[in-house]
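Summary of Year 1 activities. Much of the first year was spent building the evaluation harness for sequence design. The harness presents a backbone, in tokenized form, and records the residue chosen at every position. We chose the following record to illustrate the format because it has been used consistently in internal testing since the harness was completed.
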């Protein structure tokens, strides 16, 4: 029913927690691991885990960035519904099942995440609108969404350097008529790191928000 797309780049040690968190869900699932041309080898015990559980392992021949890695995984997905996860994050038990059961005609089902405390995204507080998208990212990264909608909007935007790839995808899905639903559950844990993409982008947030939304609204 669901394909989980797990992306990694030189952080495979985190997969020791991320992979089991993907496998624990009570849904028919496929797990695809996309290695975005890591320069450090995946640890042997992690590779054993990949082989033992029949995880589909895809590797880019050159580093292309997170958006391209997710697009590679989703394009290879055999299921009609997908959910991404970054290598240093992990799912809470059986939250994918809850997102799946809550679809009820929606194309994207999102929830909360934890980092330092619980983060509830903007969609939990107000209806979606172009004005909201220009101000705040309305959904968390690891949301369940239709592969058909992802395909219709052209997938994640690929550009040089870090950017708000989720924010841009949700904006284009909204403009294309995608139906969003918020479920008040905590879906996954986001690992805050000093070298994380969000921390790198934050000093120039206004510019990256503009990149995420211009040409959409």
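For this record, the design step produced the sequence shown next.
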């Amino acid at each position: 029913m669901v394909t989980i797309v797990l992306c990694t780049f030189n952080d495979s040690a985190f997969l020791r927690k991320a992979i089991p968190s993907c496998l624990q869900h009570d849904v028919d699932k496929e797990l695809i691991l996309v290695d975005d041309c890591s320069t450090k080898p995946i640890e042997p015990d992690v590779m054993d885990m990949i082989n033992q559980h029949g995880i589909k392992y895809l590797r880019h021949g050159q580093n292309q960035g997170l958006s391209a890695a997710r697009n590679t995984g989703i394009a290879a997905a055999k299921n009609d519904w997908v959910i991404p996860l970054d290598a240093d994050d992990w799912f809470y038990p059986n939250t994918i099942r809850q997102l799946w059961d809550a679809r009820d005609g929606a194309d994207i089902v999102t929830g909360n995440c934890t980092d330092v405390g619980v983060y509830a995204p903007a969609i939990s507080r107000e209806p979606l609108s172009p004005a909201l998208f220009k101000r705040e990212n309305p959904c968390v990264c690891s949301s369940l969404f239709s592969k058909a909608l992802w395909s219709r909007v052209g997938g994640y935007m690929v550009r040089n350097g870090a950017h708000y790839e989720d924010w841009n995808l949700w904006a284009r899905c909204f403009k294309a008529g995608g139906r969003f639903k918020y479920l008040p559950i905590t879906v996954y844990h986001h690992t805050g790191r000093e070298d994380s993409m969000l921390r790198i982008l934050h000093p120039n947030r206004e510019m990256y928000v503009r990149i995420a939304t211009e040409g959409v609204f």
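The two ends are 33 Å apart (CA to CA). Quantitative recovery figures across the full test set are reported in Table 2.
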